[in-house]
Amino acid sequence: MEDPPGTRTEAWAEGLHNANNNASLGVWPGARGGHPLAAFGGPGAKPSYLDRVVQEIVESERTYARDLRSIVEGYLGKIIDAEEPVLRPEQVSALFGNIEDIYELSSTLLQNLESCANDPVAVAVCFVTRSQEFAIYTQYCNNYPSSVAALTECMRSKVQARFLRECQERLHHALPLGAYLLKPVQRILKYHLLLQEIARHFEHKAGDDYELVLEAIDTMTCVAWYINDMKRKHEHAIRQQEIQSLLLGWKGPDLTSYGELVLEGTFRTQRVRHDRALFLFDKVLLITKRRGDHYVYKSHIPCSSLMLIESTRDSLCFSLAHYKHGKQQHSLQAKSVEEKRMWTHHIKRLILENHHATIPQKAKEAILEMDLFYPPRLPRWSPERLKKSWSCQPLGDAATEPLQGRRQS
């Protein structure tokens, strides 16, 4: 008789709950066939490669949690407890972000991992059951550039630089604070790689146990991709504001009304003396000319009216035009075949997405696949599942925008 959906995961979660309540773990539930997985380190047992992989995950999390503690107590705590303010409140906020939340999550995760008796499936379930909690890394990663800027500012001040060096000496750290503030960014993007090692050396690549390991990999891959995507959106939003401030002669609405900045680049243009700087947004193509640090507006084409004409003679050339004014073409030359492929692919995608008629999804995918442009495939488990349960939305409405499974971008 088949177990109802979710029963297996819930059983493991219950085991973790019991472990946190100091219940005896002895042996974790085994495979559905009734073969329990013995805890690592039994009498006379020689650790397998898989045992060592699992042990590495636990040990590296222990080291990571210790490093986070040194930041929270050895730096942030000393700044807060100082009799005289060493850093301004806004500097402290920018420098450390939500590092205390990260430390709390890592400490809890470490307790769960240490309760797994080195069982690889139990380790995998630790990540599945806590998937939504990793959303706090989005805020930290988005703040990281501000953290670097704040640290640079601190190191220009003799008083602040001396204080941070004294903290480093008390902690006996060989590396300065900046190296430790980078660790959360590195760690969140490494979890899925560590879990992949478990799957690679898992003995029975079938059944519920293996499926749970795969789900953990997909879960943490989705987390990493979501964070990378939010980081990219954040950077593009900042760049969009810069373009707006540097744009001369533009009488249209605020550029944010045209959606996200997708691509920007400089192209040679036929019958025009100067190169053209192009900015491709979700809803419009903006064509400008560079003038010093500024961009002079030349023209724009809504993506819903955009027409793409690829050259059959030159592998680097393509033309863009308004489909109602086809004679007003912008003949462009890319710097490489890859650049041309990237631009034509995204232009095709945005033409399809902005087309007034409803185009079936399969037809869109078929058209885009004709480019032979194959982005990485998303995991079996859709990031939308994680997004719906995450409460962290550092970019406001932008953070709630779902990532599409099989997205061609």
Brief characterization of the structure:
Residues 254-352 form the PH domain. With 409 residues, this protein is of the alpha+beta class. It has helices at 7-20, 49-81, 89-96, 99-114, 120-129, 136-156, 158-171, 177-181, 183-188, 191-200, 207-246, 337-354, 361-369, 383-389, and strands at 247-248, 261-269, 276-281, 284-291, 294-302, 306-310, 317-322, 325-333.
Structural commentary:
Residues 254-352 form the PH domain. Residues 49-230 form the DH domain. InterPro entries: DBL_dom_sf, DH_dom, PH-like_dom_sf, PH_domain, PH_PLEKHG1_G2_G3, SOS1_NGEF_PH. This is PKHG3 protein. With 409 residues, the protein is of the alpha+beta class. The chain has two domains: 49-240, Dbl Homology Domain, Chain A, CATH 1.20.900.10; 249-373, PH-domain like (Roll). The chain has 14 helices and eight strands. The chain has helices at 7-20, 49-81, 89-96, 99-114, 120-129, 136-156, 158-171, 177-181, 183-188, 191-200, 207-246, 337-354, 361-369, 383-389; strands spanning 247-248, 261-269, 276-281, 284-291, 294-302, 306-310, 317-322, 325-333. The chain has an eight-stranded mixed β-sheet, with helices on one face. The longest helix is centred in the middle third of the chain and has 40 residues, at 207-246. The radius of gyration is 26 Å and the shape is flat. The two termini are 43 Å apart.
